[in-house]
Specification:
Layout: E1 17-21, H1 28-35, E2 47-48, E3 51-52, H2 58-65, E4 69-73, H3 84-95, H4 100-110, H5 126-139, E5 144-148, H6 156-173, E6 176-180, H7 184-187, E7 192-197, E8 200-202
Parallel strand pairs: 1-6, 1-7, 4-5, 5-6
Antiparallel strand pairs: 2-3, 7-8
Helix pairs in contact: 3-4, 3-5, 4-5, 5-6
Protein backbone atom coordinates (compact mmCIF):
# COMPACT_ATOMS: atom_id res chain seq x y z
CA UNK A 1 0.00 0.00 0.00
CA UNK A 2 1.30 3.46 -0.93
CA UNK A 3 1.30 6.10 1.80
CA UNK A 4 0.57 9.42 0.05
CA UNK A 5 0.36 11.46 3.27
CA UNK A 6 2.26 10.41 6.37
CA UNK A 7 3.25 11.61 9.84
CA UNK A 8 0.97 14.66 9.66
CA UNK A 9 -0.29 16.49 12.73
CA UNK A 10 -2.04 19.78 12.11
CA UNK A 11 -4.51 22.11 13.79
CA UNK A 12 -6.58 24.76 12.00
CA UNK A 13 -7.84 27.70 14.01
CA UNK A 14 -11.42 28.92 13.90
CA UNK A 15 -11.83 31.61 11.18
CA UNK A 16 -8.25 31.08 10.02
CA UNK A 17 -7.22 31.14 6.36
CA UNK A 18 -4.73 28.27 6.10
CA UNK A 19 -2.81 27.78 2.86
CA UNK A 20 -1.37 24.40 1.89
CA UNK A 21 1.46 24.74 -0.63
CA UNK A 22 3.40 22.10 -2.49
CA UNK A 23 4.56 20.94 -5.89
CA UNK A 24 2.42 18.78 -8.14
CA UNK A 25 2.17 15.30 -6.65
CA UNK A 26 3.31 16.41 -3.20
CA UNK A 27 0.10 15.26 -1.53
CA UNK A 28 -1.60 18.62 -0.90
CA UNK A 29 -4.89 17.71 -2.61
CA UNK A 30 -4.91 14.36 -0.82
CA UNK A 31 -4.38 16.14 2.50
CA UNK A 32 -7.27 18.49 1.73
CA UNK A 33 -9.51 15.55 0.86
CA UNK A 34 -8.64 13.80 4.11
CA UNK A 35 -9.24 16.93 6.19
CA UNK A 36 -12.65 17.40 4.55
CA UNK A 37 -13.63 13.77 4.97
CA UNK A 38 -13.82 13.18 1.23
CA UNK A 39 -11.26 10.39 1.54
CA UNK A 40 -10.86 7.69 4.19
CA UNK A 41 -7.71 7.63 6.30
CA UNK A 42 -5.83 4.34 6.77
CA UNK A 43 -4.50 5.24 10.24
CA UNK A 44 -4.68 8.02 12.79
CA UNK A 45 -7.69 10.31 13.16
CA UNK A 46 -9.14 13.53 11.82
CA UNK A 47 -11.55 15.78 13.67
CA UNK A 48 -13.85 18.01 11.63
CA UNK A 49 -16.07 20.51 13.44
CA UNK A 50 -15.74 18.52 16.64
CA UNK A 51 -16.52 15.17 14.99
CA UNK A 52 -14.04 12.32 14.64
CA UNK A 53 -13.88 11.07 11.04
CA UNK A 54 -11.56 8.11 11.52
CA UNK A 55 -14.28 5.54 12.21
CA UNK A 56 -16.98 7.01 9.95
CA UNK A 57 -18.11 5.68 6.59
CA UNK A 58 -18.79 7.94 3.61
CA UNK A 59 -22.47 8.39 4.46
CA UNK A 60 -21.64 9.41 8.03
CA UNK A 61 -18.89 11.79 6.90
CA UNK A 62 -21.27 13.35 4.40
CA UNK A 63 -23.82 13.93 7.17
CA UNK A 64 -21.15 15.72 9.22
CA UNK A 65 -20.29 17.99 6.29
CA UNK A 66 -23.90 18.70 5.29
CA UNK A 67 -24.78 22.37 5.63
CA UNK A 68 -21.53 23.16 7.43
CA UNK A 69 -18.78 22.61 4.85
CA UNK A 70 -18.35 24.22 1.43
CA UNK A 71 -16.08 23.38 -1.48
CA UNK A 72 -14.52 25.27 -4.38
CA UNK A 73 -12.64 23.18 -6.94
CA UNK A 74 -10.30 23.98 -9.81
CA UNK A 75 -12.64 22.18 -12.22
CA UNK A 76 -15.73 24.06 -10.88
CA UNK A 77 -17.80 20.83 -10.67
CA UNK A 78 -21.02 22.52 -11.67
CA UNK A 79 -24.10 20.85 -13.19
CA UNK A 80 -23.87 21.36 -16.93
CA UNK A 81 -27.20 22.08 -18.66
CA UNK A 82 -28.49 23.85 -15.54
CA UNK A 83 -28.60 27.59 -14.91
CA UNK A 84 -26.37 29.51 -12.53
CA UNK A 85 -29.30 29.89 -10.13
CA UNK A 86 -30.15 26.19 -10.24
CA UNK A 87 -26.55 25.29 -9.42
CA UNK A 88 -26.47 27.56 -6.39
CA UNK A 89 -29.89 26.39 -5.22
CA UNK A 90 -28.95 22.71 -5.37
CA UNK A 91 -27.20 22.30 -1.97
CA UNK A 92 -29.86 24.46 -0.32
CA UNK A 93 -32.66 22.33 -1.75
CA UNK A 94 -30.88 19.13 -0.73
CA UNK A 95 -30.74 20.53 2.78
CA UNK A 96 -34.46 21.27 2.64
CA UNK A 97 -34.24 25.08 2.89
CA UNK A 98 -37.61 26.65 2.08
CA UNK A 99 -35.94 29.93 1.05
CA UNK A 100 -33.46 28.29 -1.35
CA UNK A 101 -34.43 30.57 -4.25
CA UNK A 102 -33.99 33.82 -2.34
CA UNK A 103 -30.73 32.73 -0.71
CA UNK A 104 -29.29 31.52 -4.01
CA UNK A 105 -30.25 34.75 -5.75
CA UNK A 106 -28.63 36.78 -2.94
CA UNK A 107 -25.47 34.69 -3.17
CA UNK A 108 -25.24 35.29 -6.92
CA UNK A 109 -25.73 38.98 -6.27
CA UNK A 110 -22.75 38.91 -3.91
CA UNK A 111 -20.52 37.56 -6.68
CA UNK A 112 -21.87 39.98 -9.28
CA UNK A 113 -23.90 37.48 -11.31
CA UNK A 114 -27.51 38.24 -10.43
CA UNK A 115 -28.22 39.38 -13.99
CA UNK A 116 -26.97 36.01 -15.28
CA UNK A 117 -28.88 33.87 -12.83
CA UNK A 118 -30.93 32.27 -15.60
CA UNK A 119 -27.96 31.71 -17.91
CA UNK A 120 -26.92 28.11 -18.55
CA UNK A 121 -23.58 27.20 -17.02
CA UNK A 122 -22.36 26.10 -20.44
CA UNK A 123 -22.73 29.69 -21.69
CA UNK A 124 -20.65 31.30 -18.92
CA UNK A 125 -16.93 32.03 -19.06
CA UNK A 126 -14.48 30.17 -16.85
CA UNK A 127 -14.26 33.08 -14.44
CA UNK A 128 -18.05 33.35 -14.26
CA UNK A 129 -18.36 29.62 -13.63
CA UNK A 130 -15.92 29.88 -10.74
CA UNK A 131 -17.99 32.76 -9.36
CA UNK A 132 -21.03 30.48 -9.45
CA UNK A 133 -18.99 27.84 -7.66
CA UNK A 134 -18.07 30.35 -4.94
CA UNK A 135 -21.68 31.55 -4.68
CA UNK A 136 -22.81 27.94 -4.24
CA UNK A 137 -20.17 27.32 -1.57
CA UNK A 138 -21.04 30.39 0.49
CA UNK A 139 -24.81 30.09 0.02
CA UNK A 140 -24.99 27.39 2.71
CA UNK A 141 -23.11 29.70 5.11
CA UNK A 142 -20.40 27.11 5.79
CA UNK A 143 -18.36 27.07 8.95
CA UNK A 144 -15.38 25.90 6.90
CA UNK A 145 -14.59 26.16 3.20
CA UNK A 146 -12.12 23.90 1.41
CA UNK A 147 -10.72 25.31 -1.84
CA UNK A 148 -8.50 23.24 -4.14
CA UNK A 149 -6.57 25.36 -6.68
CA UNK A 150 -9.56 27.71 -7.16
CA UNK A 151 -7.67 29.89 -9.64
CA UNK A 152 -5.74 27.10 -11.37
CA UNK A 153 -7.80 27.11 -14.59
CA UNK A 154 -8.02 30.90 -14.90
CA UNK A 155 -5.83 33.59 -16.44
CA UNK A 156 -3.85 35.80 -14.05
CA UNK A 157 -6.27 38.75 -14.08
CA UNK A 158 -9.37 36.61 -13.59
CA UNK A 159 -7.55 34.58 -10.95
CA UNK A 160 -6.85 37.71 -8.90
CA UNK A 161 -10.51 38.76 -9.18
CA UNK A 162 -11.64 35.34 -7.97
CA UNK A 163 -9.16 35.45 -5.07
CA UNK A 164 -10.38 38.94 -4.11
CA UNK A 165 -13.97 37.73 -4.16
CA UNK A 166 -13.29 34.58 -2.15
CA UNK A 167 -11.36 36.36 0.59
CA UNK A 168 -13.91 39.20 0.74
CA UNK A 169 -16.74 36.75 1.30
CA UNK A 170 -14.62 34.81 3.75
CA UNK A 171 -13.96 37.99 5.76
CA UNK A 172 -17.63 38.93 5.72
CA UNK A 173 -18.83 35.52 6.86
CA UNK A 174 -16.02 34.59 9.25
CA UNK A 175 -15.68 31.23 7.51
CA UNK A 176 -12.58 29.16 8.17
CA UNK A 177 -10.69 28.71 4.89
CA UNK A 178 -8.38 25.84 3.96
CA UNK A 179 -6.83 26.60 0.58
CA UNK A 180 -4.59 24.48 -1.64
CA UNK A 181 -2.53 26.40 -4.17
CA UNK A 182 0.84 26.46 -5.87
CA UNK A 183 0.51 30.17 -6.67
CA UNK A 184 2.70 32.39 -4.48
CA UNK A 185 0.57 35.53 -4.81
CA UNK A 186 -2.56 33.70 -3.68
CA UNK A 187 -0.75 31.84 -0.90
CA UNK A 188 0.52 35.07 0.62
CA UNK A 189 -3.05 36.19 1.28
CA UNK A 190 -3.55 33.47 3.86
CA UNK A 191 -3.07 33.88 7.60
CA UNK A 192 -0.68 30.94 7.68
CA UNK A 193 1.11 28.79 5.14
CA UNK A 194 2.28 25.21 5.38
CA UNK A 195 4.35 23.30 2.84
CA UNK A 196 3.84 19.64 2.02
CA UNK A 197 6.59 17.66 0.33
CA UNK A 198 6.42 13.93 -0.41
CA UNK A 199 3.43 13.64 1.91
CA UNK A 200 5.10 15.31 4.91
CA UNK A 201 4.56 18.79 6.33
CA UNK A 202 7.54 21.12 6.41
CA UNK A 203 7.46 24.23 8.68
CA UNK A 204 7.80 27.52 6.80
CA UNK A 205 8.28 29.42 10.07
CA UNK A 206 11.03 27.98 12.32
CA UNK A 207 9.07 29.14 15.39
CA UNK A 208 6.05 27.03 14.38
CA UNK A 209 6.49 23.28 14.08
CA UNK A 210 3.37 22.37 12.16
CA UNK A 211 4.30 18.69 12.20
CA UNK A 212 3.76 18.71 15.94
CA UNK A 213 0.37 20.32 15.59
CA UNK A 214 1.37 23.83 16.50
CA UNK A 215 -0.75 26.63 15.06
Amino acid sequence: MLDIVQDVSLKVKYQEALVIKGASGSGKTTLLGLMAGLDQISSGDIELLGNSLGDKNEEQRSAIRSGKVGFVFQSFQLVQGATALQNVMLPLELRGDSDAYDRARHSLQQVGLELKKNTLIDHLSGGEQQRVSIARAFAVQPKILFADEPTGNLDAKTGRQIADLMFRLRDQSGTTLVLVTHETELAERGDRQILIDSGCLIPLDPTQNTRLGQS
